[in-house]
Specification:
The protein is mostly beta strands. Among the domains are: 88 residues, no CATH class; 115 residues, Immunoglobulin-like; 98 residues, Distorted Sandwich (Coagulation Factor XIII, Chain A, domain 1); 87 residues, Immunoglobulin-like (Sandwich); 100 residues, Immunoglobulin-like, CATH 2.60.40. Helices cover 7% and strands 43% of the residues. The protein contains 3 helices and 44 strands. Strands 22, 24, 25, 27, 28 and 29 form a 6-stranded mixed beta sheet that branches. Strands 11-13-18-15-16 form a 5-stranded antiparallel beta sheet, with no helix packed on it. Helix 1 runs antiparallel to helix 2.
Amino acid sequence: MLYALTDIVSYNPDSCLVNSSVDMVMAPEGFKTTFIYTENHIREVLIPGLEQIRDIYIATENDSADIYQNQIQTWEQILALNIQLKNDAAFIENRSFSAGAPYESSEEITTSLSSSIEFSMYIEQAVALEAGFEFGGSGVSGGVDVKFRVEVGSSISGGISSTVTTGYVLDDDDVGDFFSVDILEDYTYGTPTFKMVSGRSSCPWETSTQPRDGVQLLSNTYTQDVENPDDPAVFILSLGNTSQSDEERTYDLVFLQESNPDGAVITLGGSEVQGGIPTPFTIPAGSAIDATVTVNRGPTAYDYNNIRFVLSSPCDGSINDEAALSAHFQSTCSDISLGKPLNNWVINQDSENLLQVQLTNYDLSTLESLAVQYSIHDANSWITAILYDVSQLDPDNTDLDLSFVGVPDGEYDIRAKISCGNIIRYSELRSGIVDRTPPAVFGLPSPTDGTLDAGDLISVDFNELLNCMNLMPGNVSLTNIDNDQQINVNAGCSGDKIIIVADTTGLDFEDNTFRVDIINVEDLYGNKADTISWVFDVPGPESFETEEGGDTDGDGIINGIDNCPLSYNPDQADMDDDGIGDICDGDIDGDGVNNDVDNCPFVPNPGQEDSNSNGIGDACDVTGIEEFTSDEGFHIFSNYPNPVRIETKFKYELPVHSKVVIKIIDISGKVIEVLDEEILPPGIHETTWFAGSQKSGIYFYIISFTKPDDTVITKTMKMIINK
C-alpha cells in the first residue's frame, strides 16, 4: 500500500477564510521492494514519519492506527536485532589503515544461528480461522490481526546452514585520518561486521576515534542592557580551536537569521551580517580568535533575546558550538518578566495540558496590551496563546494557566509580549518540554526467540530513558504460569534498559512457561507506561543462572565485584558508601527514606523537613535561594552563569581551613563529576566546571565543607544546562 501525508487546503465562504490541515492520502495497490536503509534513516526519518501517521489515526479514534504501530514495532525490532547481532559477532582480525591506503578483502562465513522478527498481518477473519495460523509459535491474537514470526539465519534444531562470501573495502579520503578496525563475523546472516577500535578522523568524525575538529564559542557577556536606544550593544566573541589532534583548523562562523525575527541590525567585524552565510576563521591549535559583534535596535522592538551565532566545522555540522546573545534597549514602555515558570518546565500526562505562568514586573500605566506566546524551541515562530488588555491584569502580578491542548509533544519556548503604541517589548524566554507520551517497549523483550537458554538475558529495552530511581522491587514480577508460582527476582535499570535475574533457590521444574510483568515504568518526565508483560519457555532452573565471573550489565566490571551487577555503571558511583551503587540503590543518600518517597533524595534528611510545604525538602529546596550563608560564616554564592551553556563558576567563602568537595549530579541522581576535594585556607575561592557534553536539563551541585572538628556542612543548589 502506498501512503503519505498531504496538506488539505479548504475555503470557508462564510468566514472568508482559507484553512489548512494535514491528512492521509492512500493508494490501495502496493508493490514489492527490498529495503536498503541506514540505521540513522530508520531511527530519525522512517519511524518518526510512521509515528506521525499513527498519531493522526489515534486522534480520530481510527483503528488503522494499529497498522502503523505494527510497522513501527517491526522496524524497532530490526534496529534492536542489528545491535544484538553486532554485539554477538565473533572476532576474526584487526586491520589498521590510513587515508590513501585502502584495504580490500573478503570473508567466507557459514551461518549457524537464527533470530526472529514478529509482525502482524491483517487478513480476512474467516481465512485466518480456517487456516489455524500457527507460525513460528504465534497464532491468531484476535479479529483479523494475525501475528507472524519470521526467522532469519539458520535453524539450530534443524541443522540447516549456508555459506556466504562477502567482499569489502576499508578506505578513507581525508588526508590525516587513520583507523584501527576489528573485523568480526555474524553467524546469523553470514556477513562480516566492523567495530571501530581507535583512530583519528574528520569530515565526518567517526565514533571511537580522536576528533581532529573541535570548537568553542564564548562571549565576554551574553546579555547587554543599553541605556540609549540609539547606541549598539557590543559583544566580543571568542572563537576557540579545541582540536584534540593539536592541528590548525578552519571553522565557519554563521549568524542564524531565524533568531532575529524583529529585525535587529547586526554586524560582525564591522560588516553587516547576512544569515546563513559562513565567515571562515583559521585558528591555530589550542588558541582563540576574537570577533566583535554589534546589535542595533530594529524598527519596533526594544528587546532581542537569543540572537544566535554558530561556530562549526565546514565539513561536519555535528561539530559545533553556539552563542546566544540578548540585547535590551531602554524605552518608555513598561518592563515585563516571567515569575513562573523557570527554565526546564515540564508538561506531562498528569499536567492536564496546563502550565502555570506568572506575569510580573510591569507598569499598567505604560502598556496597552499583554500577550503570552509560545514557539518551538529556537524556531522563533511565535503563537499568541493568551491576549490581555490592561483591564484584565492585576496591579502587581497576574497568574494564569497556559493551555497546551492540541500542541504536539516537543521542546518549546514561552515569553510575554507587551505593546505600548508602536513600541514592543518582550520578557526573557523560558524553555521547557511537552512530553505526555509514556515509555514504550523498543523491539522484542529478551529472550527474543521465546526460549530462555543458558546465558540468555531476561531484559527489555525502551524507546527513551527511564527514571531508574523510581524502579522499586514491587515493580517487577516473574510468574511460573504452569503452577502460578511467584519467583523472587532482582531487577536492574540503567538508561533505557531493565535487566531481570531470577532467584533459583529451591526451583525444580522442566519445560515450564514464565511471564514477566513490569508496572509503573516511568520516563524522566514522569509519564508512566501501562503494564508490560511477555512470556517465554524455560527448559530448567539452570537456564536462570548467571556467572559470577560474567558481566551481565556490560559495564566492564564482573558481577562478583560490581556494586550494581544488573545496571550499567562503569563509574561505580556510591554516594552514601553503603556498597550499593547509586544507580541501583533504593536509598541513594542513605537517610533511611526510599528514593520514591524521599523529598530530597540526593541529600540526607531523615526528618524530611519541608518548611514551605512545596514537596521539596528544605535540605535541597532551591526555591528563591540565590546565595547561602551558614551560622559559622560559610558562604556560597550563586553559580554564574546559570543557565549554563559551556561552563559555570562555583564561588564560596571559607571562615576556617576546610575540606571542600563539589559534586555535580544529574536529575536521575547520578554523580557525573566530583570537583576540588581538597583542603583550602580561609578566604574566597572559585571553581570552574565545564559542562562539556552534558545534555540540556536540570542538574544539582552539592557543596560540602568539612571543618577542622570533622563536622560537615552540606548544601544542594540547582542549576540548568541550556544549550
